[in-house]
Amino acid sequence: MVDLPLPRPIPSGNFPGSSSDSGGGFGGGNINRPPSGSGEDDESWEPRSHEAWAEFDPLRQLIPPGHYNSRTLYNAWRRLPDAFLRAQAWREREIAARLYALSQAGNWEEKILGLVSFGVGRRSWDQVWLPGLNAAWLCPDPHAPNYKRYLEALRSLDYARAGTIFNDFTPAERSRYFDGPLVAVITVSESSPAPQTLFANLRIDPLLRIGTLIKPAAEYGFSEWVPVVFEVRNFPERLSGQPSSSTSAAQILQSGQTLSGIKQGTLSAIVALKGSPAQEYLLSCEHVFGSRPQVIQHNGQPVASVEISYTSLDFSLAKMAPHCSSNPDILGLGMRYQAQPILPVYGLGVQFRGSISQRLEHNYINQVYVKTPSYLGLSGTPAFAVSASCMQGDSGTLILSGHQSSDPVSQMYARQPSASGAYPAGAVLGLLFAHTPADAYCQIPAAAYAVPVVDIDSYLSNYSVQTGVNWEIDW
After folding, report:
1. How far is CA 1 from CA 21, 56, 194, in A?
2. What values do phi and psi take at 146, rounded to 5?
3. Which of 213, 185, 220, 207 is nearest to 82 (CA)?
4. Residues near 33 by Cβ (< 8 Å), separated by ≥ 6?
5. Which of 171, 307, 396, 442 is the most exposed place for a label (fewest CB within 10 A)?
6. Which of the pair, 49 or 247, is modelled with greater confidence?
7. 333-386 per-position pLDDT tens digit
8. What is the DSSP string of 239-278?
9. Which residues on neighbouring strands pair with residue 258, listed in sequence order?
């Protein structure tokens, strides 16, 4: 198999049969520049209320009703500081919706041997391989002879000639034609068939045409055409460990500490519920804490008991015992969470420290809306992924935005502090629950997976209405 970059169409044209505002190709605008006027609080295409969000959200019909709360999701989306990030977050949901619908209709769990996950991200073109191109490509720019010859070679399936032509591109040409767009990422194990076989088996094109609410899409750097990428990773596994038998009389609890329920893991956060500020609760993964009335221990001593849990979102809330006290700082980060939950978005800077790995991680979200097949027995909610190595016992680690107090927008967007200074570091993002270990021999990188806190908040909002008891977390 020959790996060749997939070209993006030239921004000056349009796809045959597409509308003029559908985006002039992959990255049709400058992905490093917000659209003109994006300093305004609202863009013309944006939903202006949670009711409008619920009406237009492409994922609404594909998420279990109990997990979906339009007010919670809308508020988390509105906390993104500028129009570009909000547009990207919305576009990611549009792509995820198509992926989920295709996976259900095509029964991917049975048809894809070695399916690990699928979701939305960005990938550079040197990571992409396609068996050929369909008729949806733009006519190449007549002033770009190398690009035109490269397309012609790909269309004729002459990969050797295409590779030779690609080597003739200047750095400027490579930057112009091969900047990576948002893509649909299907992750498989090493045992899976080659990409061309998978495309044929699934009966999907290497390019999906996915409409968008965002207008004009090209100004935000989005196209209605989305490439499908297959990549290889190991199967994910949960990060819980065996309960500890050590004992200690000190019971000052702190986010980031090691606790034990049915398994050993990490205390995500110490929180209060809305309307009950005096009583503190411990938040972590359900596969660590277990369900009611499981007793939670710290250093061999009981410190809390589980009051509510939910397997599909892999979280538990445990009522802290009266004899315990809390420290609001996150162990190892030297800070506390500083802002309410936000929607995870590809490229956002994140920070966390595993209680067992003891490694302070400053990384970026590299995939969102990640779904794993049910036979893996992991969280039933779409997760987000971060390139990071973890250890057994790190489950429950709280992931925040930013790198310490620095701006959390990824450097890949080359943003100026003034453009995103309203976006605070320390916003709550998710709970670490699983990882795929690295494989140096096969050159497979490690990845960590987290449950978005906005999904937990959505469930608790709905559950509070159903039960008449307020379980909403007061972040």
Report:
1. 36, 41, 9
2. -65, -40
3. 220
4. none
5. 171
6. 49
7. 877 787 889 999 988 888 888 788 777 777 889 899 999 887 676 766 789 999
8. --BPPP----S--EEETT-EEESSSEEE--EEEEETTEEE
9. 266
